[in-house]
Amino acid sequence: MNMKNILKFVLVIVASIAAVNPADAQWTGPKSKPTKEVEVKYGPLTPPHRTDADMEAFRSYGLGQFIHWGIYSIAGNEWNGISARGGAAASEWIRSWSGPTAPKDWTKTYDNLYKQFNPKNFDAKRWAKQAKDMGAKYVIFTTKHHDGFALWPTKYSDYSVSASPYKKDIVKQIVDAYTAEGIDVYLYFSILEWNNPNYMGKAPKTEEEKEKFGKFLAYTRNQLLEQLDNYPKIKGFWFDGTWDASWKSAYEFTYNLEKELREKHPGLIIGSRFRNDEHGSRHFDSNGNILGDYEQGWERKLPAEFEWLNGNDWDAVMTIPPNGWGYMKDWSGIYTKTTDDLLDMLMRSVSMNGNFVLNFGPDGNGNMHPEEDKIAKEIGEWIKINAEAVYGVRHAALTPSKLGYFTQKDNNLYLTVFNQPVNGIVRIAVPKNAKQVPGTAALLVNSKNLALKQADIGLDLDKNTYYDVILPKDFQPNKAFVIKIKLVAPKAKAAKLMDAKM
Ligand code: JFZ
Hints:
Layout: H1 3-20, H2 53-60, E1 63-67, H3 72-75, E2 78-79, E3 82-83, H4 106-111, H5 124-134, E4 138-144, H6 170-180, E5 184-190, H7 207-230, E6 236-240, H8 245-249, H9 251-264, E7 269-270, E8 295-299, E9 314-318, H10 339-350, E10 354-360, H11 370-390, E11 404-409, E12 412-417, E13 425-431, E14 437-443, E15 449-455, E16 464-470, E17 481-488
Parallel strand pairs: 1-4, 1-10, 4-5, 5-6, 6-7, 8-9, 9-10
Antiparallel strand pairs: 2-3, 11-12, 12-17, 13-16, 14-15, 14-17, 15-16
Helix pairs in contact: 5-6, 5-11, 7-9, 10-11
EC number: 3.2.1.51
Enzyme class: hydrolase
Domain Glycoside hydrolase family 29 N-terminal: 41-388
């Protein structure tokens, strides 16, 4: 590579990172409430804590499955044996492959891939069964990614599965198969489209641009209404590609569209990545109020502290490779998350009232990556034993444990232990003024009761008292395990020790 090419390459990488990381990534940290209230006309359309059955179901999912599938899956992050790694932002972004490694006329080749889309092994029932066995309670399926290729026979574009040799409606098969397994279906829908002549990244200015973008907005509305008509069983939309200035400028349109979608499909769940207010504030309006039913910014990242979430519902979507949502044939030379990593993230999410959504990127024939098959199976085996600690649980208002994550359901407290203590004692800190304290403890894996004793260490100024759960000497698990603790009223007030004067 000569200097010019290297520079070009670096620029392309920087530009693509900038494109996937919109400047407004601030919602993923602790959020400070704005100090001044401003007038917001196009703010939230739903209350911050919906209590209807659909939202309660969302709250109890625990685990979800994401599927990225489209014509990018045919390529699998490479072409003619040459890897796109480093040349494209992610496998499902392979259309924007550029730099020295990009094949000649690549965009043209990509835009013709649909002519080869004929997934001979696709069997929605097999995927749904696998998701069920893994323990997923909802699925988010890419009906249309940034390339604009629709996996359903849309009336509003020629660029759909109807034009491929496969022809059949993929989305319908997914909706039917997953619904039949009792798994709720959410449709992923990218607003931004790379090769739609009416789409533009910038806010439309001239009359001509306004007319073009107006057509694009009408097209988007048509496709969404079409999806609701075709697939009335869906529970929600998972929107993406909404960060461009064009979409942001259409806040009045998007406000009305969200309203229309909700009216047409009562109970519909829409996350915070759909729209912004008239001041350009996304995910949260200018007064810090959530725009949608749950926070949708936890992408390949997790909150460090429960307080960051301000009590909002949320889900975290996660890849197994570091990045790359679409099929990646070659997993060598990169860190891919292990089942233990993923279970840790799952429990960390549910311990903070979030759902954890694990991504799968099937190949162009409709097969999952063999490593994904393995991980799905292992997660399912673990959850089967520990389901009580995963589903329908809430954050437990206890001092966080260094050994793992607490979840709670009524009087049952669960501690999923990822770090096994060397002394075999699982110590639980309970505030001295707590109304409920551990009464009994048992392992979920075998329902065996464990010895439990109060340990008042007597640390000066300590606001906690301690309960020690003693693990059996011969208990040597090779996976995380759950201790189920029954909470009871405290027997007597913890002895008051005198604090030192200084
Ligand atoms: C988007 C897509 O570009 C990507 O291909 C994938 O579908 C993923 C689930 O969503 O990627 C994003 C979107 C937003 C951020 C980062 C990646 N973000 O806000 O930080």
